[in-house]
């Protein structure tokens, strides 16, 4: 199995910043992509940002120019730097990692436990 441990959530005022981290561990051969999703109460989970194995990034329109996704390959860790936060960003943020298991090379799709981000006005 592959485990994802998230950290960095919390309460911040509008206009502030927060940095989320997600560390992957377990029987990993390679990682295809890492991403962040978020879900607000009563709403569908949405993709926020992703980064593939080549370092190419994509963002949902609402966070472009404010959020930055990055990764540390040596640590199997993905980060989400969130600047100029708005109350609309309030949600539970989930890390997601796609890759291949070690030895078997079977694909995996692993999710973190979620971390709460609350932005006050």
Tally of extended strands?
11
If you compute it from the alpha carbons, what radius of gyration comes out, rounded to the nearest whole angstrom? Answer: 14 Å
The overall average pLDDT, rounded, is 97
Number of helical segments with 4 or more residues: 0
Helix content: under 10%
- Distance N terminus to C terminus? 40 Å
User: Would you list the SSEs in sequence order as H and E?
Assistant: EEEEEEEEEEE
Major beta sheet summary: 7 strands, mixed
The parts where pLDDT drops under 50 for at least 5 residues are none
Strand content: over 45%
Find the structural class using helix and strand composition. Answer: mainly beta
Can you tell me about this structure?
- By secondary structure, this protein is mainly β.
- The chain is built from no helices and eleven strands.
- The strands form two sheets. Strands 2, 4, 5, 6, 9, 10 and 11 form a seven-stranded mixed β-sheet that branches. Strands 1-3-8-7 form a four-stranded antiparallel β-sheet, with no helix packed on it.
- The chain is elongated and about 50 Å long.
- The termini are far apart.
Question: What is the gist of this entry?
Answer:
The protein is an all-beta fold and 121 residues long.
Protein topology:
Blueprint: E1 2-7, E2 10-13, E3 18-26, E4 28-39, E5 46-52, E6 57-59, E7 67-72, E8 77-82, E9 91-101, E10 107-111, E11 115-120
Parallel strand pairs: 2-11
Antiparallel strand pairs: 1-3, 3-8, 4-5, 4-9, 5-6, 7-8, 9-10, 9-11
């Amino acid at each position: 199995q592959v485990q994802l441990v998230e950290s960095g959530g919390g309460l911040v005022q509008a206009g502030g910043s927060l940095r989320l981290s997600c560390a992957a561990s377990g029987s990993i051969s390679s990682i295809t992509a890492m991403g962040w999703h978020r879900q607000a109460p009563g709403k569908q989970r949405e993709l926020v940002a992703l980064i593939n194995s080549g370092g190419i990034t994509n963002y949902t329109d609402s966070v472009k120019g404010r959020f930055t996704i990055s990764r540390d390959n040596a640590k199997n860790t993905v980060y989400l730097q969130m600047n100029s936060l708005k109350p609309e960003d309030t949600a539970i943020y989930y890390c997601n990692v796609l890759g291949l298991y070690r030895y078997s090379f079977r694909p995996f799709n692993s999710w973190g436990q979620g971390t709460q981000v609350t932005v006050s006005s």
